[in-house]
Amino acid sequence: MLLRQGAESSDVSAADLRHNSAEIVSRVAVGGERLVLTRNGKPVAALVPMDDLAALKKLPKRS
In CATH, what number does 9-58 get? Predict the structure, then answer.
């Protein structure tokens, strides 16, 4: 299933991403993990596997 129902996401700070980018990208690309990027404790972006992104692109756009 591309969009895993009930799949949990983990938060990753922008600072952590800066210092551990290779490991974090691997968690997403290889491990299929979904991550929420935070800045000052607030969510600002998401890192998702490419299969999830492809599935999202196929969804109808909301108006």
Answer: 3.40.1620.10
